[in-house]
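Researcher: Following up on the earlier apo prediction. This time include the ligand. It's fe (ii) ion, with the SMILES given after the sequence.
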Amino acid sequence: MALYAIGDLHLSFNSNKSMEVFGDGWFNYIDRIKAGFESLEATDTTVLCGDISWGMSLKESLNDFLFIEGLPGKKIILKGNHDYWWTTVTKMNTFFEANNIKSIEILNNNCYYYNEVAICGTRGWMREDDFSSEENKKVATRENMRLRASLEAAIKAEIKICFIHYPPITKGKDYCDFIPLMNEYGVKTCVYAHLHNVDQQNTEQLQGVIDGIDYKMVSSDYLSFIPQKIMM
Ligand SMILES: [Fe+2]
Ligand SMILES: [Fe+2]
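Model: Understood. Below is the ligand-bound prediction.
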């Protein structure tokens, strides 16, 4: 029994947007994801950190969800910037139920527990081009409120882990004010994804312990499509 994380599966069974066009790193990625999950067991939990399916609607993403359903263990999903199919929690749960999808849970203003550990998170936000615009500030504030709601739901948990699609810091700036928020709630581990084609040797990415928070990047291509174990 273990807790894993991986982001950016970018499944495309119905939407014809294979990631293979983005270079050799993505060659045969669907089979590699399947192989990457092979060592997991039914008792394991994996947080899928956004950019799950290219489908434009739940219906168009159905085969992607069925693929995820076929992977071992429970999956907790959060929204990425490319998850256009994402809708209300009620609609998503109704859709999953109608299609006999039982292993997917939605992380959205709430939290889940892995043993005593709370799994919290939100999509986050990153717009390097124009962070001064009112629209971007509004989105960043909303994302901060969503993470706070998730952390607040986990208030009694001694250990809380944050899972965020976007890296919480971009170009040295914490646009969503996530770091003071994580400090306020005593978060010591933050897992994020979104970045692609990152050089394994690139030390500029936010990784390792910085000011008391351990950052882990789990984009699928960075992990060679093998979910990263977060804890036993
Ligand atoms: Fe992505
Ligand atoms: Fe993304």
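Model: Residues 134-153 form the longest helix (20 residues).
Researcher: Noted. I'll compare it with the apo version next.
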